[in-house]
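User: Here's a protein and a ligand (zinc ion). What would the complex look like?
Assistant: Let me lay out the input and then the predicted complex.
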Amino acid sequence: MSRQYRIAPSILSADFARLGAEIDAVLAAGADWVHVDVMDNHYVPNLTIGPLVVEALRRHAPQAFFDVHLMVEPVDALIPAFAAAGASLISFHPEASRHVDRTLSLIREHGCEAGLVLNPATPLACLDYVMDRLDLVLLMSVNPGFGGQSFIPSALPKIAQVRERIDASGRDIRLEVDGGIKIDNIAAVARAGADTFVAGSAVFGTSDYNATLAAMRAELGGGG
Ligand code: DX5
Ligand code: ZN
């Protein structure tokens, strides 16, 4: 089956002293989205990027699609801030919101696409009743908090299960996978049913972004 594939480099592994140039470089190399990992030292044990940085990046790259992955708790107060800063899509973890349905609505009310993120051990049941509020499901294939971790193999059957749910819903919902994606496993992740691939260290840890993204695209069969 041919899908429109998207590759979303995570700037978590970029050179933070040169973020604008790093984004320019991956977009010029063919990246589709820019993945922004927001961590709060509370929901996850790390501290990264706030709305001010997204606002500066939006000004720097007006056409870019900023895929903002919130690993924060609580979530709701930050949604208007990231939407105003220029996020294109905002995703969050259901464990970090008291009212998942309300948070999903809030994201769309602020003009962004909405996504729900499932940790490796989070059951799929949290997708029940909210499929109509989703533009994206993001499956974590590592535990959130750090770049450069290894892909957890049990994510593969889980991807297939989410793909079945999305197809059964008949809705246009993207299935993104985040964590440990490299040139040598991206094809397997696609075969399991993913259409959008976050890659942090696999992209920014290499010296030639063109070559890395071309190799990933080749593994995907040139799709997208
Ligand atoms: C982890 C983040 C990921 C991370 C992926 O909490 O959500 O987006 O940057 O990094 P790699 O691709 O290096 O596993
Ligand atoms: Zn992420």
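Summary: The pocket of zinc ion (ligand 2) is lined by residues 10, 35, 37, 69, 178, 198 (CB under 6 Å).
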